[in-house]
């Protein structure tokens, strides 16, 4: 029987300039998630919590907390980009292009913009990607650049964390 680890992220050598990854999962934002995230982060703006207040706004309904949108889209990209990263180095140029509402489904894709060897760690390389989130209708809702340090092939951190089974199948 063949056994293999599912591919996740990649080592530095796997990244290709200009390559675009469409991330596989598209979560639908529920009201409970928006309320929970808004309260946990202590964002007290009524546009995220107060339906009556939001109904009187130009949007006519509650807006999803924008930092939740960024967090979800960033999280969606991890499986294909930074699963094997050992340091996030920065998020830049965050743009919120369109509002996100409860009930919207978010999808994300990332393009590799820059690759360079790390000058401080011989076991890593630095990758810069541009990620954008789209709603179910294909409208961009967020866009940003993210830079992270990822292991190189052969580095100890580039191996699967799956434990060696103590008993056979």
Overview of this structure, please?
The protein has 169 residues and is of the alpha+beta class. The chain has a domain at 12-28 and 65-155: Hotdog Thioesterase (Thiol Ester Dehydrase, Chain A). The chain is 17% helix and 28% strand. The protein has helices spanning 31-40, 51-55, 66-78, and strands at residues 20-22, 85-95, 107-117, 124-134, 140-151. β4 and β5 form a beta hairpin. The longest helix is centred in the middle third of the chain and has 13 residues, at 66-78. The N and C termini lie close together (10 Å). 26% of the residues are buried.
Question: Would you kindly provide a brief summary of this structure?
Answer:
By secondary structure, the chain is α+β, with helices and mostly antiparallel strands. It is built from three helices and five strands; from the N terminus they run βαααββββ.
SSE topology:
Layout: E1 20-22, H1 31-40, H2 51-55, H3 66-78, E2 85-95, E3 107-117, E4 124-134, E5 140-151
Antiparallel strand pairs: 1-3, 2-5, 3-4, 4-5
